[in-house]
UniProtKB/TrEMBL annotation:
Entry annotated with the keyword Transmembrane helix: no
Organism domain of life: Bacteria
A Pfam family assignment: NMT1_3
Protein known as: TAXI family TRAP transporter solute-binding subunit
Signal peptide: 1-25
InterPro entries the UniProt entry points to: TRAP_TAXI
Keyword entries, A-Z: Signal
């Protein structure tokens, strides 16, 4: 009996050593960076909250120093990641398509081929907010020459929303700034409207409706169709539960967001970061509730960027198919 127990103990010990060796082999950190940054956007927007929270989560999970960085948003994040000035970033499919085709407004002619997709985040609705006292209750109510804040320069909102409103016949005075700053300007009467493109709930809007009465303006069915015909967006409904102000779902349009990584980052690093994110949706939801759609089933919404080999490995190991042509 003693010999049998000894053999069993020896087998268990050997198995533990082999398992430990396997884990070590899969997470060899010799080529990992000492720290990382995540390109987000301006303070007061969902990108900043989501990106900074995700950076802290990954830093804790992988025991690597890292954090979110305030940036101009999706378009600048593509450039930062491509150039290696940020390891990770958050972007939207419209600016991503422009970047890989050499049509980024920040670097015309430069095809950004060092940007890889990691995981889906959420849809970005395009929505409009005005003070209730302004009398603006629809897009057609926006007066000629209205001062409209479109977010940070070169952001998704600033890139697409002005063109959308021009297509809908709105004439305006264009303003830029961080979402929190624009919220303050709206409340102080320095601008008339904010045209948001950000994950919901938008912190700046939630703060505004606590401090004053606002109108969250929806698109008409005809306006949605006009925008769909002219821009890379999809139909979207903002749930009434998103804001205190809404009494029913509000019609809008949206664009998908993805987390991105430098294609030259170590495969194991991106694998482990993707694994932690995809296997801990509850933790991601605690970062921002828009992460409800940060799930692997939504990788299908990326048809623009190649997936990083590390991210692709996790998806394929877990039964999610990716077209070989979309893997770097």
């Amino acid at each position: 009996m003693r010999n049998m127990m000894s053999k069993s103990a020896l087998l268990l010990a050997s198995g533990a050593l082999l398992a430990a060796g396997s884990v070590h082999a899969q997470t060899d950190r010799s080529d990992w960076p000492d720290n990382f940054t995540v390109g987000t956007a301006s303070q007061g927007g969902t990108y900043f909250v989501y990106g900074s929270g995700w950076a802290n989560f990954i830093a804790d999970e992988l025991n690597v120093s890292g954090g979110g960085e305030v940036t101009g948003g999706p378009t600048q994040n593509l450039a930062l990641v491509h150039e290696g000035n940020a390891a990770f970033g958050l972007t939207t499919m419209g600016p991503a398509a422009d970047a890989v085709n050499g049509e980024s407004p920040l670097a015309p002619g430069l095809k950004m081929d060092n940007v890889c997709a990691m995981f889906p985040m959420y849809e970005t609705p395009f929505s409009i907010t005005a003070l209730e006292g302004s009398g603006i209750e629809s897009i057609s109510d926006i007066p000629d020459g209205a001062r409209i804040g479109f977010g940070p320069s070169a952001s998704t909102s600033d890139t697409y929303f002005p063109a959308m409103l021009e297509t809908l016949g709105v004439n305006f005075d264009r303003r830029n700034g961080g979402w929190s700053d624009l919220g303050g300007q709206l409340q102080d009467g320095l601008i008339d409207v904010i045209a948001f493109a950000a994950g919901i709930p938008i912190p700046a809007v939630s703060q505004l409706e606590v401090q004053t009465d606002v109108n969250i303006i929806e698109f008409t069915e005809e306006e949605v169709q006009t925008v769909l015909e002219n821009f890379p967006v999809a139909e979207f409904m903002i749930p009434a539960s998103t804001y205190q102000t809404l009494e029913e779902d509000a019609r809008a349009v949206s664009m998908w967001n993805f987390a991105i990584a430098g294609c030259d980052l170590p495969e194991d690093l991106v694998y482990e970061a993707t694994k932690a994110t995809m296997e801990n949706n509850d933790r991601m939801m605690s970062v921002h509730r828009s992460a409800a759609t940060t799930i692997p089933e939504n990788i299908k919404h990326n048809t623009v960027l190649p997936f990083h080999p590390g991210a692709a490995r996790w998806y394929e190991e877990n039964g999610y198919e990716i077209d070989e042509a979309l893997i770097k």
